[in-house]
Each structure stands twice: as structure tokens, then as C-alpha cells.
Design a protein that fits this description.
Blueprint: H1 2-17, H2 29-40, H3 52-64, H4 67-89, H5 93-100, H6 103-108, H7 115-134, H8 140-156, H9 160-177, H10 181-209, H11 226-237, H12 253-280, H13 286-309, H14 321-338, H15 343-360, H16 367-377, E1 386-388, E2 398-402, E3 407-411, H17 418-429, E4 434-435, E5 447-449
Parallel strand pairs: 1-4, 1-5
Antiparallel strand pairs: 2-3
Length: 460
């Protein structure tokens, strides 16, 4: 067990320090939107994103006085809480550590996005649903706590509604397959309490913003071309892969070919999981794993469908986070119930932890060096109310060289462009400045253009 304690410490260390060597510190455009809502509290002006994550960030910002350190300390606190809870409650500690060594948990707990608290809450939802399904001495209080967590998940990410729908599907499965009617009615109670909470929050949004989930702010969905459909499907299938999730922004023939190769690997992994699950059904708590698999499928399918009806991000590791976590956690639990040795799985996990570090830091930049430069210039822009990247046409290419064969290629990283970096850092330092997709503000004197910020990225 000591080796898993050590690995848990390493995961916390890696998740905390990785973003120090990302050019914008792990802050992205959506991060700025969350920071803006947090800065506007207690009077938010938009329901584009729910209030859960902004409230958490603002709470930590009030302690640490900075939005970068607020999200960092929030993430590391959640990690430590999960590991301590798992260890002292003896709730699949080995499996939990390996789960957090997978691609999804390492990614989301290293950056400033709402997926981290969403998955944090999902972990505890799984704990209480596991207790309801496995522990015959569970109480109505356990059902109530699970319901509250479900509502909190929706208040952190609107996609929590798909988790709710998945549990509803599972309740129907219990009604048809299970002879335990008390268990079915416990899930009806869960759905009733959490459903009331979700409807109440939607009512709050409609009363204050005249929309339920900011649907009027998202714009029309992106055109669904054959290539975009393929990329989205590839992203969904990659949810089966617990370790590897590289998705280039380019849609070139070489890029799509690479992603198809990854998809083939993903399909083999999924097939292995299915066969392993079927072989082990007589030795596992069947209902619990059926629940996790239903959540995986429902969440992935409905999120893919929502991408056709509204303007959301392409399906990728981040978007498929909940599906990947439920599937991988199910596999890990089944694995340790059926295998006496953890050697192979542990080696693979450590190998891909190293891969995560190498891939994430393939072109490292010291965030605090970039931040210091922008910070020194912010006093000149006090009167600016908006931020707009007017350097989008300027492209920064990263050169990669193949050893031994003297070959190189260049690639444009979407999150490594100078304008993006300057906007993210400036927005982190002053979230009251709203970032703009289009330069539509009439009074240009109120707009901070990224070309006005000087940033030397060559020196470290």
C-alpha cells in the first residue's frame, strides 16, 4: 500500500506544478469566462456557465488574492481530499490512485476548468451510489446526500443533466431486471430530490436571465461537415482509452490518419474491457458496474448529440471526461477483484504518467516569466473594459525534430499563440475585463488589444 501512497503524492505534485511550465499557466478562454463570472459575484450578469465553479474559485481567490493561485489551490485541495477520503474510508484506494494517474484526471486537475470540481463531485456521487447498491444498511440520508451531490454537479456543469438521465436509465434497468423493489424506490427518491434541485436552478436562471442554460448566448452550432463529424466520433471513441488521448487541431490527411490509428487502439481497449467485464460478472457487484457503464454510454451519446444542436467544443478528452472516468474506474475495480498482481497495470500507469509529462511539457515556457511581463504593463490599461486578440493572423509554429534521421516538422498549437497567451494572462490578472470573440465594441478606447501588450517568449 505504501507505493500507492507515494504515487498519490506524485500525482498531487505533478498536477500542481505542471501548469507552471505552460505559457498561460493552464488558463484557457473558458477559464477567463469562469473568472469573469467569479469577479462579478454576487451579481453575475450571465448564465452562459453555471455558478458552481465561479463560486468555488471566488472563495479561494478571497483567501489567496489571485485567480491563478485560487484555481491552483482549489485543484490541489480537491485532490488531497479525494485521496484522504479514499484511504481512510478504504474505498478502492489503489483503484482511486490509478484512476487519477489516467489521462483525464491528470489533465483536468492541472488546468483551470470546471471539469475538476465536476469529476471531484462525480467521485463522491459514485461513492454514495455504490453504498446504496452494495451496502444493505444504507439509509435515506445516503440517498439525500447523493441527490445533493447530483444537484451540485449540475450547478458546476450543465452537462451534469446527462449523469442525471443516465441514473434514470439505470433506475428503469432496476425496475425490469432487479427483484429488489426497495432499491428501485431508493433511486426514484434520488431522482425526485435531485430533479427538484435541478429544476429549481433552471428556474433561477430563467427568472434572472430569461434563459435556462445560456442557450441564447452560445450561437449557432458549427457546420457539421464530414470531417468534423468524423473528428467528433473519434473523440467519443477515445473515451475508452484511459491513458492516451492526443488529438491534433489539424484536419490534414496525416492528422486524421493518426487519429484513426488511435481509434483502432481505442476499439481494442474497449473490446478488452467488455470481455473482461463479461468474464467477471459472477465475481463482481453487477448492478454497480452496470450503473457505471450506463453513465459512460448515456453521457457520451448525449454530449455528442448536443454538439450538433449548440455551439460547444469538439469531442475530446475534456468533453468526454466523465465517460472516461466511469469506464476506467469500473475496469480498475473489476481488475483488482480478479487479478492477484498489479505489476503490469502499475507499469503501464507509470509509463503513461511519464508520457503525460513529456507531452504536456513538450515545449515548456515558464508561466511566471510571461506573467511578470504582462503584470508590469497592466497599470497602463486600467480604463480598458474588454480584451480582444487582434493578432490572430500571426501564427507561431513549434518545430519538432526527429532524432537520428535529421528530419523536422512544424505545428501550430492552438493554445501556444502569442495573442492567446497575452489575453489569458491579462484576463487572469484582471477578470473584470471581458474577453471578446469579435471586435464589436464601438468605443475602441475601452478595448485592450493584445498587440498593445509586449511579451518576449524567447527568454526563460
Amino acid at each position: 500500500m505504501n507505493k500507492y501512497i507515494l504515487l498519490a503524492i506524485i500525482v498531487v505534485f505533478v498536477s500542481f506544478f505542471t501548469s507552471f511550465f505552460l505559457p498561460a499557466g493552464g488558463v484557457y478562454r473558458d477559464s477567463l469566462s469562469y473568472f469573469e463570472i467569479a469577479a462579478d459575484l454576487p451579481n453575475p450578469v450571465t448564465d452562459l456557465f453555471p455558478l458552481g465553479y465561479p463560486i468555488l474559485v471566488r472563495s479561494f481567490q478571497m483567501v489567496f488574492g489571485d485567480y491563478f493561485w485560487a484555481y491552483k489551490m482549489l485543484n490541489v485541495t480537491m485532490l488531497i481530499v479525494v485521496f484522504l477520503f479514499s484511504y481512510f474510508k478504504q474505498f478502492y484506494f489503489r483503484e482511486t490512485v490509478l484512476l487519477f494517474m489516467g489521462k483525464t484526471m491528470l489533465f483536468v486537475f492541472s488546468i483551470a476548468l470546471s471539469e475538476a470540481p465536476f469529476l471531484f463531485l462525480l467521485y463522491f456521487l459514485i461513492y454514495f451510489l455504490h453504498k446504496i447498491l452494495i451496502d444493505t444498511s444504507y439509509s435515506k440520508a445516503d440517498v439525500a446526500i447523493a441527490s445533493i451531490i447530483m444537484v451540485m454537479m449540475f450547478i458546476v456543469r450543465y452537462s451534469g443533466i446527462y449523469i442525471y438521465l443516465a441514473v434514470g436509465v439505470f433506475a428503469m434497468y432496476l425496475l425490469i431486471k432487479s427483484k429488489n423493489k426497495q432499491l428501485f424506490w431508493s433511486f426514484v427518491l434520488f431522482l425526485s430530490i435531485s430533479g427538484l434541485g435541478i429544476v429549481s436552478y433552471l428556474g433561477y436562471n430563467y427568472y434572472n436571465y430569461n434563459s435556462y442554460t445560456g442557450e441564447d448566448l452560445r450561437g449557432a452550432p458549427y457546420p457539421m461537415t464530414g470531417v468534423s463529424l468524423l473528428r467528433n466520433i473519434l473523440g467519443v471513441i477515445n473515451a475508452a482509452n484511459p491513458f492516451f488521448g492526443v488529438k491534433p487541431a489539424s484536419s490534414s490527411v496525416m492528422s486524421i490518419g493518426f487519429q484513426i490509428i488511435v481509434m483502432i487502439v481505442d476499439i481494442f481497449i474497449l473490446r478488452y474491457f467488455i470481455l473482461f467485464f463479461k468474464k467477471s460478472r459472477s465475481r463482481i457487484d453487477d448492478n454497480f458496474h452496470v450503473l457505471l457503464w450506463i453513465i459512460t454510454g448515456v453521457y457520451a451519446i448525449f454530449l455528442l448529440i448536443s454538439g450538433w444542436t449548440q455551439q460547444i467544443e469538439e469531442m475530446n478528452t475534456r468533453m468526454m471526461a466523465a465517460a472516461n472516468v466511469c469506464l476506467f474506474f469500473s475496469f480498475l475495480i473489476i481488475y483488482f477483484k480478479n487479478e492477484s498482481s498489479d505489476r503490469k497495470l502499475l507499469r503501464v500507469s507509470v509509463l503513461f504518467l511519464i508520457f503525460f509529462l513529456l507531452y504536456t511539457l513538450k515545449s515548456p515556457e515558464y508561466y511566471f516569466y510571461n506573467r511578470k511581463q504582462v503584470e508590469q504593463q497592466m497599470s497602463k490599461f486600467v480604463s480598458k473594459r474588454f480584451i480582444y486578440d487582434d493578432t490572430q493572423e500571426e501564427t507561431t509554429l513549434t518545430t519538432y525534430r526527429f532524432l537520428f534521421i535529421n528530419k523536422a516538422f512544424q505545428y501550430k498549437h492552438s493554445n501556444n499563440q502569442s495573442g492567446d497567451i497575452k489575453r489569458q494572462i491579462a484576463g487572469t490578472l484582471d477578470p473584470k475585463k471581458k474577453w471578446l470573440i469579435h471586435d464589436t465594441v464601438t468605443d475602441k478606447s475601452k478595448v485592450l488589444y493584445t498587440s498593445e501588450i509586449k511579451l518576449n517568449q524567447n527568454k526563460k
